[in-house]
Please model this.
Amino acid sequence: QITLKESGPTLVKPTQTLTLTCTFSGFSLRASLSTVGVGVGWIRQPPGKALEWLALIYWDDDKVYSPSLKSRLIITKDTSKNQVVLTMTNMDPVDTATYYCAHLRGPGPLDFDYWGQGTLVTVSS
Amino acid sequence: DIQMTQSPSSLSASVGDRVTITCRASQSISNYLNWYQQKPGTAPKLLISSASSLQSGVPSRFSGSGSGTDFTLTISNLQPEDFATYHCQQSYATPLTFGQGTKVEI
Model:
């Protein structure tokens, strides 16, 4: 059974750096024949607004970022801990949102079949 | 970026109704279109992938169709548990993009 859970601060100040951790189970991001195409993505949703994809990391450590946020994002994985970490620099109140991590099944279409519960991050001084 | 436009943004319906939600892509995305259901305070749930492939465990009253730029999610015989927000997402190319969501309410 695949599960994911986000953790991190609920409140950050403007200009600070946000670090979110996604801890998962039921699958691996260790490079092997059985994990080809598998990945973890981060998606956020401001209150009452649409979903916005942020970044992806694949089993082979390939990384893809949203162009509009690329300069502020870093995504990494720790296969020994089954964790994916997202770092977002220079936080602003407009970054207030629920942040989700999700399992990208692969290979094939880029859809997210399992999601974490989400964590609400508020940016305020 | 590929823009995804859903219509309507919200709709009112009754139990037993047939509901249709449309998603339009700004360019052809073949059948690389996914639909998610989201209930308040919870994460999105994948309903349909590749435009028409129903995910395991999803009731058969949900169906998807379309190809190219125009896609449809249909819910036949609407049930109380179907009142939620529905999102489309294109998986044709990064950056992955979502529609703005359609809220189905009573």
Notes: Chain A has no helices and eleven strands.
